[in-house]
Amino acid sequence: MRTTIGRKTTALATVCLCLLASMSVCAQGTRTDTAYSYLERGNGHYQKGDLDRALADFSLAVSSDPRLAEAWYNRAVARYDKRDWEGALEDLNAAIRLNPNHVMAHIKRGNLRANQGAYEESIADFSQAIKLNPKSAMAWNNRGLTRQHSKDFDGALTDYNRALELDSRLPSAFNNRAGIRHDRGDLRGALADYNRAIELDPHLALLYCNRGVTRKALGDFQGAINDYTEAIRLKPDFSLAYFNRSAAWKAMGKGFEAQQDFIRSMESGKEPEISLEPSIEGAKTAKPAKP
User: Fold this and answer.
1) pLDDT digits (tens, 9 = 90+) for 92-129
2) What is the DSSP string of the chain?
């Protein structure tokens, strides 16, 4: 009788454990489904440029399922766009702990660390992204940019060349490589890269400003003026373009125009940037919002 009771008790305990396990799986499934619902809604807000609502939904997704790396990553991207570097870094660290193979998280963290001047750690992140996905042109380009900031120009040039082998339509890589070529005296090579970058994206003011510098160095002052003028048309508060055009006017002996542009260059204005930024997951055409 004791044996029978013991068997029944054991069987009952087993059934209870199975039920508890089943309930746990169901609960986890519910949490995950809820988290993805918040993610989807957050993605919609993000694509519309509403970072605050996107951030709120991504936070709800994290709370609903803290084991979902995608939720941490998407919230990190939103925080990154709001220039909340500390919060973004915490979320990226969490996403990578949950999914060490998350290529975009490594690239995003590399960008963040580069923005903070932590170049060694930034390069390590890009290198890990490349190890995980050797065909990521974004990782190669961004590691090249960080190496360029670190004065490793040979390494940067190698990375830009590889990025362009993988994707020959990257204005950023052409622009970045052109800068190294210009500094090394290969002005014709730099000009060719700027020309190609502008063909790919004629709406980036920085490209015209940079090409203007190379044209001026080649003695093409009118071409430089034209480029600076286009850069200013695209971005009227582009102080560096005014400053450079002032120098070009001065080189042409036009003191009045030079003085006017120099005065304008002293006004405050945010310089445009060219960067490759991973966006959120789960959005087909997500575009990072401008701060």
Assistant:
1) 999 999 999 999 999 999 999 999 999 999 999 999 99
2) -HHHHHHHHHHHHHHHHHHHHHHHHHHHHHHHHHHHHHHHHHHHHHHTT-HHHHHHHHHHHHHH-TT-HHHHHHHHHHHHHTT-HHHHHHHHHHHHHH-TT-HHHHHHHHHHHHHTT-HHHHHHHHHHHHHH-TT-HHHHHHHHHHHHHTT-HHHHHHHHHHHHHH-TT-HHHHHHHHHHHHHTT-HHHHHHHHHHHHHH-TT-HHHHHHHHHHHHHTT-HHHHHHHHHHHHHH-TT-HHHHHHHHHHHHHTT-HHHHHHHHHHHTS--PPP--------SS-SS--PPP-
